[in-house]
Amino acid sequence: QVQLVESGGGLVQPGGSLRLSCAASGSIFSMNVMGWYRQAPGKQREWVATITGDGMSNYADSVKGRFTISRDNAKNTVYLQMNSLKPEDTAVYYCAYNKGRLYWGQGTQVTVSS
What we know:
By secondary structure, the protein is an all-beta fold. The protein is built from no helices and 11 strands.
């Protein structure tokens, strides 16, 4: 089993920054892909970014250049640094761990509003 716990969400003004964290526990392998997804009200869950075990990352076009995904394999933790936040970034952000299928955290709310 895999457990994922996200933290770091909150309310931020446009142009501000937040850093999300996701701590993984259970049957974890450091080389497995981890990532972040988000779901805005009334919309489907969408992919944001992923990172491989050796640190290669990919980003959705909507966040490229503003968000940075990273991981600390010793701590089984993945991070999402979000800069230059926009109101359209408002969503529940979910951490995901790929182990044959995707395991999900409970989500953390990010609200970008003045």
